[in-house]
């Protein structure tokens, strides 16, 4: 499982690259609408980390 920690404190997770990108974009749209479009998939994935105890997909 991949994750990104938002500056607001929420850890956004996804089961793979596409799922994580979609989850981060949904979080931004819901909680930080001024940031919609500010981060593309490459930006999000550059911030991603694998959650401890989860297998690589």
Layout: helices, strands, pairs:
Blueprint: E1 2-5, E2 11-14, H1 17-31, H2 41-47, E3 49-50
Antiparallel strand pairs: 1-2, 1-3
Protein name: DUF1059 domain-containing protein
Organism: Trujillonella endophytica
Verbal overview:
The chain has one domain (about 1-50). The model has no long low-confidence stretch (mean pLDDT about 95). It has about 55 residues and is of the alpha+beta class. It is globular. The N and C termini lie close together (about 10 Å). The chain has two helices and three strands. The protein has helices at about 15-30, 40-45; strands at about 1-5, 10-15, 50. This is DUF1059 domain-containing protein.
Question: What is the number of domains?
Answer: 1
Uncertain runs are none
Q: Roughly how many Å is the radius of gyration?
A: 11 Å
Shape: globular
Largest sheet: 3 strands, antiparallel
Protein name: DUF1059 domain-containing protein
Organism: Trujillonella endophytica
Quickly list its features:
DUF1059 domain-containing protein; globular; 3 strands; 2 helices; alpha+beta; three-stranded antiparallel β-sheet; 57 residues; 39% helix
In short:
By secondary structure, this protein is an alpha+beta fold. The chain has helices spanning 17-31, 41-47; strands at 2-5, 11-14, 49-50.
């Amino acid at each position: 499982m991949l994750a990104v920690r938002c500056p607001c404190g929420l850890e956004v997770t996804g089961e793979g690259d596409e799922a994580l990108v979609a989850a981060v974009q949904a979080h931004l749209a819901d909680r930080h609408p001024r940031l919609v479009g500010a981060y593309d998939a490459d930006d999000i994935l550059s911030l991603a980390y694998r959650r401890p105890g989860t297998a690589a997909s």
